[in-house]
Amino acid sequence: MKLPPDPFNLADYVLAKAAAQPEKIALATLGPSRADRWSYARLADAVARAGGGLRRAGLAPGDRLMLRMGNSAAFPIAFLGAIRVGIVPMPTPAALTAPEITRLAHSLPPQAVLAEPGIALPDIASPVLGVDLLDGPESALERTHADDLAYVVFTSGTSGRPKPVAHAHRAIWARRMMWRDWYDLRSDDRLMHTGAFNWTYTLGTGLLDPWAAGATALVPAEGTDPAMLGLLAKRHDATILAGAPGIFRKLLARELPALPKLRHALSAGEALPPSIRTRWHAATGTDIHEALGMSECSTFLSGAPTRPAPEGCIGFAQTGRRLAVLDEGAAVIADDTQGRLAIHQSDPGLTLGYLDRDGRPDLPLTGDWFVTGDLVTRRADGAYTYHGRADDILTAGGFRIAPSEIEAAFDGVAEVNDCAALVIRPNPETTILALAYCGAASESYLQQHATHHLAPHKRPRAWLRLDGLPRGANGKLNRRALRDLLETPNDQA
After folding, report:
1. Predicted TM-score (pTM) above 0.90
2. Kind and range of the H or E element at 481?
3. 108, 102 Cβ separation under 8 angstroms
4. Residue 203 pLDDT more than 60?
5. Distances (CA, A) of 309 to 252, 377, 386
6. Alpha-carbon distance 372 to 292, whole Å?
7. For the chain, which domains are there?
8. Which of 213, 217, 259, 267 is nearest to 237 (CA)?
9. Model confidence pLDDT, tens digit, residues 277-299
10. How many Å apart are CA 250 and CA 265, to the nearest integer?
11. Cβ-Cβ contacts under 8 Å for 344 (sequence gap 6 or more)
């Protein structure tokens, strides 16, 4: 795709539309009785003053600022304010405990921590700053370049230790590839994202992209009951609704109000069960378009209103992306053959690399490719089928099986509300496939269903009924936490 202009500052780019439409609503934080509204002019002014406040507090360009903030407008204001003046924000999930956030902080020590009250802080020597300093003097825009470090996010860490991922200012420019090939984003859209502000999916899809396009971002206030989301979408005329699959599952568990302004919905974070897409269309008359992405490159495969994904596929490579499917020897393989998805190093949205404790980036490449952990098959028409994460692959009886293959067989089954496949060890010498599930289905019924819908080597041999599966605040299944839960002895549970 066309490269961004030089110099280029992510925060300046995101709020460029403020000059032409100062009174238009950029952000509305939706509560049960009222909305906190921010015009483009008010938002741009707050970002400029946040940058000034951070500089006045002694932070300098290049300094790292860990954000410990909740679901309020102060979070994106601090994020953009820091970037505006060359400070590098490090957003983190507010739900992390003190030991968890301390581990993150030790992996990449920040020069300071910006915190709202009531959120766990890291046990480090860096000073803790209050959000009141964001009301500072207006700051001058730092002259930055497209390849300069802009911000740091952390990988989810659900299958291991989180890594600090460095992103350049150009990462926001690369997101333009999603506007047509996933969102179909327009300046008159009112995009409602159901996730927390500090989730990278919400930050990008729910806030930064709508503002860069001149649209309106709608985000439910912290603590909003999921049962209220449909009503809020209707009340505030949402035209696009975005979230994780778990959110759509919760919405469909209740009677949805009519959503006459809704054009379509967006799903990411984990694979979307086909039954949810089908039920959503029946309930709303609109489609859910799915995307595959990662902390290192945001999304790159998606379906869109302009090019829906074929049945059974996740979508197509977004225009401008250069992708390949590689075998275990890192060679590009033919269509209709499963392999690892890889992104070419020239992609403008690709991370600068993983940072060490001293802030030095390392981008692991195989030849010209950044190889992901995603297993896919590319069809001749360019559509991709997703087979799950390589590190989630289950091995039992000599077979390697993607958990999504088993879970898909139980998608939509009566009295199975949620499920996840995994391997368990009934004794030190044996591993067997199991299905953890929520619902009233009997073991005999599940066994019979598996017999008719799964090959013998894919049929679970153990059925584990749970009250709920461990999912994050945004509805994403935490497979590591599920394994830990089931491996905990009963007398310690």
Report:
1. no
2. helix 479-487
3. no
4. yes
5. 22, 14, 12
6. 11
7. 10-319+344-370 (3.40.50.12780), 393-487 (3.30.300.30)
8. 259
9. 999 999 999 999 999 999 999 99
10. 14
11. 322, 323, 324, 368, 369, 370
